Structures are given as structure tokens and as C-alpha cells.
């Protein structure tokens, strides 16, 4: 299996996304913004459709559009805090509308499915380098702003009081989130990206450890889900994205079943 270059690329890209997604996901879950993952995934699909129709790189247009959507959501959330969930629904609907209009025009049909369902086995070296770049930037930025992110995640008002620049931290995180999701959909697909953002974190949280332990455990769970999912999909000749998503659910169910022993 590893003798094939496409499987080598798939495993490396999958491992990077498995590390990247829980790092973003743990802050999303703790902020109770899990829906934002789906919102930005659909925004990235609209970006892909725009790129295909305009004759641009779908990956590049997806990254730009998704980053702008993430910043827009944060801008609106900052001004209408009581309506954050509604605002995300508005952006999601707008993105889906753009994608449907462009796809139904017949100009974006060619490559859209590989972004909708994921196409990890067609990942190129260029895609791999882009994911690696975003992963390095994300890990470095989260490490640099670690304490600020912790404070704003658990107590945004308290973070204001101790003079943390909450707006700047939130906008930086929104940008990282948009970039991470945009580079991941080629691998996992729009329909299952939330499985890698939310489910490994939800699984790790069942063991009731501290924040750092939960973060590293969620990364470990994500790696197991992705790598084992890829191996199973190769063995069973099934869709990689769907196999990874199902394995993520199975892993979470197992953690729920053994959770009573961790009380």
C-alpha cells in the first residue's frame, strides 16, 4: 500500500489534517460554536465553485473566500453577540446559495464532487505543501497566543478585564479557522469535515482530563481515525471520507461506553 505515491500523499495529508482539525476544534467546542465548522465548510465549497467558474485555482479561491467568511462571521458576532447562531446560519445559507447557483449553471460540475465528498487519494504534492504550511502557521500561532486563547475561550469578559486584546485574538482565531477548513475539504470533503473538527474533541472530553491532555488526546484520536480510516478504505475499497467519518463516530461511541469507568 505504501509503495503507491498517491497513498503516501494521502497518509501524510490525512495526518496533517488530523493534527490541525482538533487544534481548531477544541476551541470551537468549548466556545459552543461547533456549527461554525459546517458554516465555513460550506463557505469553502462556494469558494471552490467561484474558482472553477472564474478559471482560477479552486484551492486558492476557497482559501480566500473561507477566510473572508470567517472574518465576516467574527465581525458580525462581535456586534450582534446575542444572535451568533443566527448569523452563522445566514452566512451558511449565503454560501450554499452561491455554490448551488454556480454549480447549477453547469460551469462548476466538473470538479465539485471531489470537494463535496473529499478526494484524499488525488491529493498532490502541492496540496500537501499547502496543508503543511497552514498546519505550521496554525500550530505556531496557537502556541504564541495560547494563554490569550484560553482566557478568551473560557471567560471573554474576564479577558477584557486583564487587558487581553480579545478582538485581535478572536479575529486571528477566525482567520486560522477559515484557512484550516479551506485546506482540509479537499481531503475530507465538505460533508464530513465536522467529523474531524468536533468528534475527536468530543471523544477526548469523555475522559475528563485537563485542557492540554484533552488537546493532545483529541489529536491522537484524530490520527487514529484518519490513518485507520484510510487503511480500511483501501482494504475495503470504500470512500475514504465516509470511512473516516464512520470511524470517528464509532470511536466516540466507544468512549461514551467506557466513560463510566473514568468517573
From TrEMBL:
GO cellular component, one term: ATP-binding cassette (ABC) transporter complex
InterPro entries associated with the record: ABC_BtuC-like (IPR037294), ABC_TroCD (IPR001626)
Annotated SUPFAM superfamilies: ABC transporter involved in vitamin B12 uptake, BtuC
Domain of life: Bacteria
UniProt KW keywords: Membrane, Transmembrane, Transmembrane helix, Transport
Membrane topology: Multi-pass membrane protein
GO biological-process terms attached to the record: response to zinc ion; transmembrane transport
Pfam families according to UniProt: ABC-3
Cellular location(s): Cell membrane; Membrane
Residue spans crossing the bilayer: 12-33, 45-73, 85-106, 127-146, 171-202, 214-236, 242-261
Family: Belongs to the ABC-3 integral membrane protein family.
Protein name: Zinc transport system permease protein
Amino acid at each position: 500500500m505504501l509503495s503507491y505515491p498517491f497513498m503516501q500523499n494521502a497518509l501524510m495529508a490525512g495526518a496533517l489534517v488530523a493534527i490541525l482539525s482538533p487544534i481548531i476544534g477544541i476551541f470551537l467546542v468549548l466556545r459552543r460554536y461547533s456549527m461554525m465548522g459546517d458554516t465555513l465548510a460550506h463557505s469553502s465549497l462556494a469558494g471552490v465553485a467561484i474558482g472553477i467558474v472564474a478559471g482560477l485555482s479552486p484551492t486558492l479561491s476557497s482559501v480566500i473566500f473561507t477566510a473572508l467568511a470567517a472574518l465576516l462571521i467574527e465581525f458580525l458576532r462581535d456586534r450582534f453577540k446575542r444572535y451568533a447562531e443566527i448569523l452563522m446560519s445566514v452566512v451558511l445559507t449565503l454560501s450554499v446559495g452561491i455554490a448551488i447557483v454556480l454549480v447549477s449553471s453547469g460551469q462548476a460540475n466538473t470538479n465539485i464532487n471531489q470537494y463535496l465528498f473529499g478526494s484524499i487519494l488525488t491529493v498532490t504534492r502541492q496540496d500537501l505543501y499547502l496543508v503543511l504550511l497552514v498546519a505550521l502557521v496554525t500550530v505556531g500561532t496557537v502556541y504564541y497566543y495560547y494563554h490569550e486563547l484560553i482566557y478568551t475561550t473560557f471567560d471573554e469578559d474576564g479577558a477584557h478585564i486583564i487587558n487581553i486584546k480579545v478582538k485581535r485574538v478572536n479575529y486571528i482565531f477566525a482567520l486560522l479557522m477559515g484557512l484550516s477548513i479551506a485546506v482540509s475539504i479537499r481531503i475530507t470533503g465538505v460533508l464530513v469535515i465536522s467529523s474531524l473538527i468536533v468528534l475527536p474533541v468530543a471523544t477526548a472530553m469523555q475522559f475528563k482530563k485537563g485542557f492540554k491532555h484533552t488537546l493532545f488526546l483529541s489529536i491522537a484520536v484524530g490520527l487514529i481515525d484518519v490513518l485507520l480510516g484510510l487503511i480500511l478504505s483501501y482494504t475495503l475499497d470504500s470512500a475514504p471520507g465516509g470511512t473516516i467519518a464512520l470511524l470517528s463516530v464509532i470511536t466516540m461511541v466507544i468512549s461514551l461506553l467506557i466513560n463510566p469507568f473514568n468517573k
